[in-house]
Amino acid sequence: MIKVIELKNIKRYYRPAKEVVVRALRGIDLDMESGEFVSIMGPSGSGKSTLMNIIGCLDRPDEGTYFLDGIETSTSSQDAFAFIRNKKIGFVFQAFNLLARTTALENVELPLFYNRTDSKKSGKASRKMAEQVLNEVGLGDRMDHVPSQLSGGQQQRVAIARAMVNDPAFILADEPTGNLDTEMSMEIMTLFQELNNRGKTIIMVTHEPDLAVYSKRIVTLRDGELVSDMPVTNRRYAANDLANWKKEHELLSGISTSSMEERVPPRGERISPLGEMQ
To answer: Which CATH number characterizes residue 227's domain?
Structure first.
């Protein structure tokens, strides 16, 4: 398998005061291969956000090396660093980060705008690519909708399509279901599993064990150190859980409706405060 990420002895320090040093990462060694679906977990202060920023080329380590798709990023120039980030990584954030007055299609097409010339041919090609990924995430009939016309789950699907459009080395998702309810969360995890089955590499930062079991591997941090790196042995399938969830809620809804119907009195009768017919 091709290694997408190679982290060797990654250390990151912060100095909030002159004589204070916070050791956020204390020598992380971590490899991830193409086609993996990895969850990064850890309690608050564990270093997972710092690690995510380094993996996402949003920050550089103080020590160690980071090879992304074979490119050594920690010694790259600022311009090369930005290029690697834009071309090699597809970001999915908790808050969606969509442009409010821009359609789903235009939001997805935006990353391509910075990587093409002004020719009509390349513009048409960009639009076709954006349409393709929106179809892949199940929003082919919502391309002309602005974010306010979409549900939270649909907005996150647009964000995922935007992350995919440049065909990055991997998708980096930071708490991707943090703003979603249970049903929409399972829909997004179903989509991630489908994309992973098609060969997409996905790295998800989460604090929820219930979501991590949908991935294939869980990396756990504590106090800036990697304390566990294990395959998911009890992996769950989000599509099955979503179907069961819907079935259970349909049954509960039916029971609730039936109960209300049973309590409706015949014409001319009423229900006392104790629920008895009078």
So the answer is: 3.40.50.300
In a domain, 275, yes or no: no
Inter-residue contact 29 to 221 (CB < 8 Å) = no
- The answer to the question of residue 267 being in a domain is no
Which amino acid belongs to residue 101? R
Q: Is the pLDDT of residue 276 over 70?
A: no
The token duo for 114 is 């910075």
Residue 273 domain-assigned? no
**Helical segments of the chain, H only:** 48-55, 78-88, 104-113, 120-136, 152-164, 182-197, 209-212, 238-262
Q: Model pTM? A: 0.86
User: Is 95 a member of any domain?
Assistant: yes
Residue 71 has which token pair?
């490119």
CA dist list (Å): 32 to 41, 84, 198, 253: 15, 17, 17, 44
**For residue range 187-215, what is the model confidence (pLDDT) as tens digits?**
999 999 999 999 999 999 999 999 999 99
Rounded to whole angstroms, the Cα distance separating 120 from 118 reads: 7
Q: How many domains does the chain have?
A: 1
Which residue's entry shows tokens 């199940």?
138
d(CA 203, CA 7): 14
pLDDT at position 114: 67
Domain that holds residue 36: 3-259
- Residue 76 confidence (pLDDT): 84
